[in-house]
Amino acid sequence: MNKLTESSLYQLTATRFRLFLREPEAIFWVFVFPIILAVGLGIAFRNRPADVLPVAATTPQLTQALAADKGLTARTLDEAAGARALATGAIQLLAIQTPQGVDYKYDDTNPDARIARMLADRAIQNAAGRRDPVPAQNRLIHETGARYIDFVVPGLLGMNLMGSAIWSLGFAIVEMRQKKLLKRMVASPMPRWQYLASFLLSRLLMLVIELVVFLGFARIAFGVPFRGSLWDLAFLCLTASLAFSALGLLIASRAKTMEAASGLMNLVMMPMWILSGVFFSASRFPSVVQPLVRALPLTAAIDALRGNMLQGMTLSQLALPVLTLLAWLFIPFFVALRIFRWR
Amino acid sequence: MTQSQTEIITTASPAGSPALLLRGLRKAFGDVIAVNGLDLEVARGECFGLLGPNGAGKTTTIEICEGLTLPDAGTVQLLGRDWRQDASHLRQQIGIQLQETQFPEKLTVEETLRLFRSFFRQGVAVDEVIRLAQLEEKRKSRVGTLSGGQKQRLAMATALVGDPELLFLDEPTTGLDPQARRHLWDLVDELKKSGRTVILTTHYMDEAERLCDRVAIMDHGRIIALGTLQQLIASVGGDHIVEFAVGGPLDPAQLTAISGVQSHRVDAGLHQLSVTNLHSTVPQIFAAIDNLGLQLTEFRTHSATLEDVFVSLTGRNLRDE
Q: What is the mean pLDDT of residues B70-95?
């Protein structure tokens, strides 16, 4: 045994690590769940190579004309069967042969159906001999960074930083208080600052693993871009994680039971899950509530992460969210220290 | 190592001062007065017991001594030092076992003790403490798998890793089965032999009788009796207790008139007499019952215990609380 492993800060931090690693549920929520979520969203919102829309027509001639368009698959159905297929979403549009020409039956509030209407009409007019007066060519680009997965990965990262920090601190501290272990430790010569520091230290070590696993996966599986400096990204993650840890400490500073702590955590995190733009841009909320939304730590964290990863912004360009995070780090931390219940 | 040795010389406790000194201690929680003017002195090397029913103020008193609760009034000195000036020094010098501490279930015995050992500058090696607490076979086991007695010995071990001069044990055997209790008592015997001062609370008479050199009986936040076991039992007036029941009414005056009977009380139809000499007094009790034409339905005697002391002082049984 050497000096380091005998020191109380080392022992306290090692204890935090051991207790975390021996809790299979915690490992799942911190490491596995974000990846499952990213995979799920990645599959659901993947950019398909030009969507192929299912349509149908009442005559074989029309079906043939529709099938000539690469954006459509077509089959022949009578009007009754076609109406049923429309109702169940099996087809987006039904082309009905009439004595005058063609009727298109579709739902004009559905974007896919509107596209199907344009493609179907073009295919039928072309088959009937229409020629375009202006010759046009397509040049296709598939840029990474503009996809939904690119947008959602920084959001999930922010959400994960928040959840793991608040849960790991909040539950661990309140559990120790409830089991009178906190009181027992305070009755020993343990330096109190080291008790709190051990939480931050173990959180930082955990953060490194979390970041490498999650961002590495996002990079390899989805090719998510990292346009900003990686050092800046590391700094942002660190600041965000510490800010959420301070918030977790504040939540845990008085609560005596796990039930109370868990209620408080949900109260704090729920609004941020909804308002802070994890899955869609927070700017969609009305301008009246924007100051509130912008002041939330998760909004600041996600804005900064997206700015860095997707737009390659520097820290000085991200000054506002970074300062917001720093405020969320220092104010709750000092309030928590003042009101912390040691027994 | 040399550095910490010099430290111990320069910070050694003032010699000659008692292990514990309490003067005029008071503590109230809202309307409830938990400790109501308590004076106490415990000498070094003594094993001292605070005995009393639940709610007597034992735990509040011991937590004030441990520096966990601030008294409303009064002075507390441990090893000649005061919590207000020497808290960090005192923390190094005392060992504490609290009621109902639950150690993390997923740490092993050894890991838990290493953690607590790291808080002390000086102390006993973890292996040594594990041996002392007889937890060798469980050293790699997780705390969650230990029995009640083993958990309690672990709690004692965490109190011992700092090699304390003064040890506080709050209800060390509450909730344990008889065998586990005896096991723990043996451990306390070991500590007494090594010259440490032990201060324990208990609501078990037999535990106080078995372990303590001196006992203070507490009730309603006060010490109502203090002394060695022999002194306390002598204060009841007789060394023996006679308990009997008869099938009819009996005037207490007829019993107290018998020579050698020191006191009388009735508890749930059972007459209890404290008696100096069994062999001379018991035949007279039998004769008195015979003369009254009463039927004896129950009869037994035992040596006076702390339970009898408590009963004679408060008129209540400890176990009723």
A: 92
